[in-house]
Amino acid sequence: MPDVKLPLSGNVTQSIFPFTINVGESSSPATELDAISVASYGKQLGRIGEALVVLLKHVKLGQLPPEEEKAIIDLKCMLHELANVKKEHGAKHILWPPLA
């Protein structure tokens, strides 16, 4: 199949090795680098998401103002979509957020 390039587009590439990490304006770049040596940002966010799924299953939120309820609904939808991606990639451990 031929490559198709839209106007003003080009190849999208990402270097895997060597890793290049931009810690930006961190107050402690050394801490940032040490933290990602423990777990990548993706893994850290994944674990936070899983912990939120657990909390969402066990906490009674009651009557929230509409903007707060929307934030919770949006989070649940995102976590559900991420669980779908994990399932598609054959993950063995998936925590699904409550939909209600």
Q: Could you give the topology of this structure?
A:
Blueprint (H helix, E strand, L loop, with lengths): L28 H10 L2 H18 L7 H23 L12
Task: Describe the model.
The chain has 100 residues and is mainly α. It has three helices and no strands. It has helices at 29-38, 41-58, 66-88. The longest helix has 23 residues, at 66-88. The protein is extended and about 45 Å long. The protein starts with 28 loop residues before the first helix and ends in a 12-residue tail after the last helix. Mean pLDDT is 81; it is low at 9-16.
Summed up, the helix count is 3
Q: Which structural category fits the helices and strands?
A: mainly alpha
What integer is the average pLDDT? 81
Rg, rounded, reads 19 Å
| Main sheet properties | none
Shape: extended
Helix content: 40-55%
Distance between the termini: 44 Å
H/E topology pattern? HHH
DSSP strand tally: 0
Beta-sheet strand percentage? under 5%
* Poorly predicted runs: 9-16
Task: Provide a concise account of the structure shown.
51% of the residues lie in helices and 0% in strands. The protein has 100 residues and is an all-alpha fold.
Features:
100 residues, mainly alpha, extended
